[in-house]
Amino acid sequence: MKVVAGSSSPILAKRIADRLGVDLAKVTFKRFPDGELYVRIEDVDDEAVVVQSINSNDDLVALMLMFDALEDSDIVAVIPYMGYARQDKKFNEGEAISIRAVARLIESYASKVVTVNIHSREAASYFKKLIEVDAMPIIGKHYAGKDIVMVSPDLGSYERVKVCAEHASCEFDYLEKVRLDAETVEIKPKSLDVKGKDVVIVDDIISTGGTMIEATRMLLKSGAKSVECACVHAVLAGNALNRLYSAGVKRVIATDTIERAVSVISVAEAIVEALKC
Question: Residue range 231-251: average pLDDT?
Answer without folding.
Answer: 97
